[in-house]
Amino acid sequence: MKKLILIAFLFCAFSVKAQQNLVMNGSFELNNAIPCWMGLDNIAYNNTVLFSKHFGDNSSIALFKLPCTVCSPPILWGGQAKDGDYALVLAGMHETIVIPPPLDTTVHNIRQGKISLALDIPLLDDKRYKLSFWIKGPPSNTLQAVCIENKTNIIEVGISNYEDSLGRHLITTNYGDTIWQEYTYVFETQNAEQHITAVVGLNGLIDNWVFIDDFVLTETTEPLTTGINELNGINRNLLKIVDILGKESSPNKKGLLFYIYSDGTVEKRLVIE
């Protein structure tokens, strides 16, 4: 009887270990934040959130302890974090700078939030893994006209050997909403990756803000995800093509073009011929 109990205990212990989250700070709870929200540049983020690195452009990320009072007039904003108290907002922002004569030109600056999350151990080539994470858009509220209000919450998620590179792309989310939505992806590794990465998507010249939270990576025996566009039963159709100014364009126009699809993904294509 004692042997059976010991065997059962060891089996349960092994099962629990196999399901441990390999992402060391997937809910962003390990941090040194003081106020309910912090707009962070690269250095501040890397000094505030443990086991994570922001390698995007400065001022394109914020750490929120939800709910939080923001904006003017003050609003109790953001709802609840998906797990724990904290969630991140990644931003993709376009700044248009008009330079007067004699230069008389317009400059478009893009700031894009990009983070990596360290894993407890490098991934193993003979294992299969399941990644899950949650996203949502900022809440819709007419009082937020001076703040953040956008539902084009698109992010690209990957795995990488480096803390400052997206690495191997896994999934691009479709359009979400103002409530938390879970995404999952089952994959096999190729190169003993050590980081989960997330990069905010861009949608033409429209600013893009997205809450992200609760990244979980575990070993699994589930079937591999067969295709990005098969997620959630959504078929991808091309909606329109726009240029860098956000104007609709033909695919033959020279320059940088953005292909916008019905699942929320945006492809950038540079036409030079």
CATH architecture of the largest domain: Sandwich
Strand tally is 17
Q: What proportion of the residues is helical, as a percent range?
A: under 10%
Uncertain stretches: 4-11, 13-17, 142-146, 228-235
How many DSSP H or I helices? 2
Order of helices and strands: HEHEEEEEEEEEEEEEEEE
Question: What shape does the CA trace take?
Answer: globular
Query: What name does the CATH topology of the largest domain carry?
Result: Jelly Rolls
Average pLDDT for all residues: 78
The quaternary state of the protein chains shown equals single chain
The level-1 CATH class of the largest domain = Mainly Beta
> Which strand-content bin applies to the residues?
35-45%
Class from secondary-structure proportions: mainly beta
